[in-house]
Specification:
Length: 138
């Protein structure tokens, strides 16, 4: 291989590394921006939250959390774009302001369960530590 050909291969190799390096950095940045600053929650809270959601939230947000006529999706890319990267207490306070006609009417424990369910539906994993209903602890 001539010196010229080696230089072309070397330059192309650097270009490929540069392109994939930049793409990798962009991907890492997007993934970091999509990480909810989330507290832990239990599988039991997810199960209870699903029940509360069906009874109190599905009429506006939809049975699938993203197909409601009267409220925005709370699952999927749109929700993650709006809420991931923010602290969990802000999300809890938003959930606690529901339903609009009777804010804070479900009680802290029920709102924590709904939040656990919503987080689970947005690909966050449950653990053995329950989600607190104390906003200051979030």
């Amino acid at each position: 291989m001539s010196t010229h050909n080696r230089a072309v291969v070397f330059c192309c190799g650097l270009l490929v590394i540069g392109v994939f390096g930049a793409a990798g950095m962009q991907l890492a940045s997007r993934l970091q921006a999509q990480a909810l600053i989330a507290p832990s929650f239990t599988p039991a809270q997810v199960t209870a939250g699903q029940t509360v959601f069906r009874q109190s939230c599905a009429s506006c947000h939809g049975a699938n959390l993203d197909d409601g006529e009267f409220a925005p999706p709370i699952r999927g890319a749109e929700f993650r774009q709006a809420w991931f990267g923010r602290s969990a207490d802000v999300l809890f306070e938003k959930i606690e302001s529901m339903p609009p006609t009777a804010p804070a009417s479900l009680g802290g424990a029920r709102y924590a369960e709904v939040m656990a369910y919503v987080m689970s539906q947005n690909q966050l994993a449950a653990s053995d530590k329950p989600l607190s209903s104390d906003v200051a602890a979030l």
